[in-house]
Design brief:
Blueprint lengths: L3 E5 L4 H13 L5 E3 L2 E5 L5 E4 L1 E5 L2 E5 L12 H17 L8
Antiparallel strand pairs: 1-3, 2-5, 3-4, 5-6
Length: about 100
């Protein structure tokens, strides 16, 4: 038997504040529905339902990846790699021409 598990995801407070701040300039109030993850148990199938924001009858879909998927590389390691990449690009010189 197939069992579908629903897990709700809360929108980040910083993102929510940005949207409300932008809407305050337009004198509108957004309607925010939190998204979620639907998983079929004992499989690797998952569906990420985006957050829905309705402003003046227009629906916008927003994904919040930081709470859904763990990063493959930590932010610290990513920053170290970017610094090393810049150092390597300064020392690299192309001394041959290829056709």
């Amino acid at each position: 038997m197939v069992t579908i598990k629903n897990e709700k995801i809360e929108m980040e407070e910083a993102l929510k504040n940005k949207i409300e701040f932008i809407c305050s300039f337009c004198n509108t109030t957004p309607i925010i529905y939190n998204g979620g993850i639907k998983m079929i148990e004992h499989t690797n199938l998952q569906y990420v339902e985006p957050h829905r924001i309705i402003i003046k009858g227009i629906t916008f879909l927003v994904f919040n990846y930081e709470n859904v998927v763990e990063p493959l590389v930590s932010k610290e390691l990513w920053k170290q790699c970017q610094v090393q990449k810049r150092k390597n690009s300064r020392n690299y010189k192309q001394d041959k021409e290829y056709i």
